[in-house]
Amino acid sequence: MILNYIGESWVPAQEKKVFLKICPFKGDILEEVSACEAMDFVRALQFAKKSLLLPKRPDFEERGQILRKIADIITENEMAYSKREASHQAVPESFVLENSVRPAARAFISAAEDTEFKLQHPNHDSFLPTGIVVIAPHWGLSLRFLCEKLAPAIGAGNAVIVKPCSDSPVTGQILGEILERIRSEFPEAQWASGTCQILQGQKEDLLELMAGHPSVRAIAASSSLLTGELIQKAASPTWKKMQLHMGYNNSGLVLPDAKPEECIEQIYNSAFIGQGQISCNISRLFVLESQVVQWTDLLLEQSKKSKWQGPMMRKTDRPRLEDLLRQVRADQGKIIAGGEISDQGGLYLSPTMTQDLSHCSVLQQDTIAAPLLIISAVKYAHEMVKWVNTGYYGQIAQVWGSLEKTSAIAQKLEVGEVWVNGWVEKSRRIPYGVKQSFFGVADDRTFGTFFSDCKKIV
Q: Residue 421's closest CA among 285, 253, 298?
């Protein structure tokens, strides 16, 4: 059973409730997971408060040592962590290794460098920890998201409560194992009991409770737009700092001089590895009318070559997938590949591509979260920009072509990050979106405005 990590100990939920983590590949039970409720949060909160009140807390040098050790532990165990995360998240191990586990280790090295720089270059500004910070990652690239928030939070001296996504409870288990190693290797003076707590749970109201509690001073979460709205409403009355990563409907733009042999595999993978369910997936591909037949044929050929077809995260998503396919047909779209649903074992939708879908379709706007790629033909390249910017999400976009033309197009796109001739490997950190993709303080620096409070001494 996957337990909670509270006060440096593995413990079940006080009410002994559990939920089941279902294997997305086979549909059988993968793990029993402890299900926390309000009293478990209260207990974790008590430990977090105590850690902040210790008379002697880790200085910059000690924090740097701890952060580098965590990076070392992740690197030492990167293959095992990748395998465990991939089994919970239904993505290839190699993808998890390169785009989640290794970036997670780099996040701790970066935070260590921040604390070391602060030690070597003191100034008249005093940076105080924000206080108790809640971190709640989505299951996609979950270790990376968690560590890119946790590393600067610890480096700044905060106490952290982690609420792993119920679709990837193994992320919390991995973190707890890392914390056990740290606890055994560093004395109490350097690693205070209560610095980091991990609460597993399935109910969204637990996250809403955390967001609304006055002792929590900041919350970083990745969620649906609806859950983000609930968190924002709960957190606003106590004027918390927030980082809310929410919906997405990402686009790929193929410019006239893009070289198919250099990018067709990456374009295909960016739509279908992760089954369209992670925030770096694209769900729309814009090509010129004069080239749409060429690029469509290349994608269909790549579909035949690809050895990867992953399942949906939840088997209960079948009605939603059926609604998506009905919506495609209702909005004049033509399914040119895939469209077949199977729930023998896990739930699978074969990689699906559609053409001729109306630009006014709700599917051109909403988060699709399925292996469905909309191929949209436009007459001129500037129309690609218009249709990308029409959406109410603005997470990421990818642009393919010569550097001169991609740079000009990238400047006009209303998104948080543009990947030029590449996919997620281009990103140094999980990007902040714009519009309804993100709300809050877009600052992951250790001594920035989210994880620290700056006090001016004049």
A: 253
